[in-house]
User: Fold these one by one.
Assistant:
Number 1:
Amino acid sequence: MSGKKVKALLESSSHVVAFTGAGISAESGIPTYRGADGLWDKYDPNKVADAEYFSLDPAYYWQFVRDVRYPALRDAAPNRGHTALAELERRGRLRALITQNVDGLHRDAGSENVLELHGNTRRIRCLDCGGGYSLEALEERMRGEMPPACPDCGGLLKPDVVLFGEPLPEETLQEAIRQSRSCDCFLAIGSSLAVQPAASLPAMAKQAGAGLIIVNKEETPLDAMADIVLRDSASSALDGVLER
Ligand code: NAD
Ligand code: ZN
């Protein structure tokens, strides 16, 4: 049905920007937050994604990383949705990939111009000495102590992600806004489009005259504004886009 419309919109666009959320990684076995089977049903978002709570009880957050996040990340590989976006970039059809995901799977799939708005869970920082570590390198430590201490100074470690109450990385956000305002086709994939300020990017693109395509399994608050809504899984919708 919308296949022809998607094809026409993509063919008439020279500057395509993609924007992804947790839905695109769901098929890689990483649970989403909202939506069916979302993490929020089992873990309190006020605790595991909140900066203030992290400083009060870092062990609670680190247990969530050790028991839920790390096992999912360690076993995850990019799926057809990730690889389709990398292929679009290689073909010169995709200028930028803005993501809210913190799993690093877009880079694993080969995407290069990736703007990570919420950081990356696989990078760990020491809040005391500033040292950087990979999550894998801390596996032993996570099993032995909670929260794991910095291998160099014994200080408090935190994954390099943006928690509620923290600002987004300014340069990355500005670049994402610039890309959204200057593209002629904006492809939003697998995001509930519910978290600000990231969710305002599709609206910004639309207001600046771009065509808006939304791919999501469930309704989003921006569906009414979109030119095309594909109520489909990210991998099957992006496979279709590649073919066109
Ligand atoms: P979200 O969990 O709010 O929404 C995900 C959406 O994807 C839901 O509306 C759901 O219906 C849809 N969906 C589920 N499976 C899908 C599939 N196979 N194909 C297409 N759509 C599918 O995610 P969000 O909008 O990215 O929320 C933002 C916050 O969640 C961000 O802060 C992000 O950092 C964080 N987050 C990241 C990850 C990750 O890195 N993989 C995982 C969970 C949450
Ligand atoms: Zn340290």
Number 2:
Amino acid sequence: MIDLHAHSTCSDGRLTPTALAARAAEAGVTTFALTDHDTVDGLDEARTAADTHGMTFINGVEISVTWQRRTLHVVGLAFDSRNPSLVNGLATLQKARRDRAARIAAKIEKLGVTDAMARAQAMAGDGQITRPHFARLLIEDGICRNNHQAFKKHLRPGRDAHAAIEWAALESAIGWLHAAGGIAVLAHPFGYGFSGAWRQRAIAAFADAGGDALEICTGTTDRQQEVTAARDAAQHGLVGSVGSDFHAPEQFWLGLGRLRALPANTQPIWRDPRFSEAPSDASQLRSRRGSQDGMDDALS
Ligand code: AMP
Ligand code: MN
Ligand code: MN
Ligand code: MN
């Protein structure tokens, strides 16, 4: 079982890298990537934990990109996490994130949240401050009922607590990942609220910018979307990736590794030589391939 997209407390996930890896192993995941937003800080800890559970661990990150005034997410996999061009690129995003956090904090204080920046900082600890942290503050202070409402009413673009931010250029994010020997994946093509035409444009722009793969099976896709994405991938010469985008055990509808197999016409990302050359136990990866390839639609 392969899962190449998940979050820890280093960004907006609720489990530490160690606890996340343990949960993935318990769920039956055999090849696992941690992909926190704009940071590689959790990778060493997650790798150590994955090793103790006998899982193959793949370095991952989810890079925030601004393209055509919209946000895209580029998952990077199997890179050298110490590569200076990647590390420096992520550092610029982390600084932009901190600046934006202060602006969001000021806005939610106007809505009645007290001491927003200090509390967001305390909640995030050494990790990145993300919009879900501010959603939690809006809920804690009784301004919103739940996460969905916090985004819908306040944190989305166009709402009163949204703060504009310029993330990485698409070409930059892909360039950093390639410089670090990694693979660039356009995350969750159905996760941006785009029309079909914009989704097509985004995939084409990603492929033109040198991107390698499209995330086809996620924790929230249905089979029809996966078949559509597989066709898009084939059309643009992209291979296919799979990842739950797990953030928290409270997301009971979405489990680590609970993913369908890639549609039959799709080249799996784990056949990419960069993937198997990544620092991991390659023989283990090889022996696990057969089971995923032959897996039926296992999602109930
Ligand atoms: P950020 O990168 O700090 O802007 O936060 C983005 C994260 O917020 C995403 O990765 C999701 O985990 C979460 N998110 C974005 N939009 C929504 C939404 N409409 N409802 C719930 N969570 C969302
Ligand atoms: Mn997230
Ligand atoms: Mn994402
Ligand atoms: Mn994600």
